[in-house]
Design goal:
By secondary structure, the chain is mainly α. The protein has 6 helices and no strands.
């Protein structure tokens, strides 16, 4: 397996500090690059890239001068273990790998086929990973929306419950107030009735011992003399007529 810094996308100007300070790390990196099995020119060039980066670090360590180093040059180059011996080993390995790369290039059809296969395989893997990421993102968005909808529904339910509870309390308070008013009104009426009854009893108590109105003798009425009614008055004609019919 190639070290992480063996890549065309490595963004650092220098290799990691442990390559310069730890011989085991540097030797392991060189051994991994030398033993890396590749079946295409592309992967062979990756190995050559790694060895070239190691060789460049050896040259930088050998040429490092503390007085002449600029601010972007790391201090660990001054104590680097990378030297001429390791550099010579790297040069020999690069020559051997270059020969292997050339051998791969001789069979152009096979080399192109393998490269195409590798490229197509990577593309399939990338498309698959992209789809998986898209599905995961869609699932995440759906889940977030579901959670947000649940929160909104719970909040709406809470508000409705609060409104309902407030309305029930208002109705209950009105009923309680009406009941209290009714009881007070009944108590007032009962008190007024009691006062009225006491007044009647008191009035009756004062009237006891007096002579009833029926026992008082009425004053005698004055006797008036009555006369018979006057006889009816008859005219002379009436008298003559009466005599005629009588005859």
């Amino acid at each position: 397996m190639c070290p992480i810094w063996v890549s065309w996308t490595w963004s650092q100007a220098y290799l990691p500090k442990d390559i310069h300070e730890n011989m085991e790390t540097a030797s392991a990196a060189l051994e991994n690059l030398c033993n890396y099995k590749f079946n295409s020119c592309g992967w062979g060039m990756i190995v050559v890239l790694g060895l070239g980066l190691l060789l460049r670090e050896c040259s930088r360590a050998q040429e490092y001068e503390e007085d002449e180093a600029t601010g972007d040059v790391p201090d660990y180059l001054g104590n680097s273990i990378l030297g001429f011996q390791l550099g010579d080993q790297i040069v020999d390995k690069i020559a051997g790998i270059e020969a292997e790369v050339e051998a791969v290039w001789k069979d152009e059809n096979l080399g192109l086929s393998v490269v195409r296969q590798d490229i197509e395989k990577r593309r399939r893997e990338e498309r698959k990973k992209l789809k998986e990421n898209q599905k995961a993102e869609e699932a995440r968005v759906i889940e977030e929306k579901r959670v947000e909808d649940e929160k909104r529904a719970m909040e709406e339910k809470r508000v409705e419950d609060e409104k309902r509870a407030m309305e029930e309390k208002r109705v209950e308070d009105e009923k309680r107030a009406m009941e209290k008013k009714r009881v007070e009104e009944e108590a007032r009426l009962a008190e007024e009735a009691s006062k009225a009854e006491k007044r009647v009893r008191k009035s009756n108590a004062k009237g006891k011992g007096k002579r009833p109105a029926a026992d008082v003798e009425e004053p005698s009425k004055k006797k008036v003399k009555s006369y018979p009614p006057d006889p009816p008055h008859c005219s002379g004609r009436d008298k003559v007529t009466s005599k005629k019919y009588n005859a």
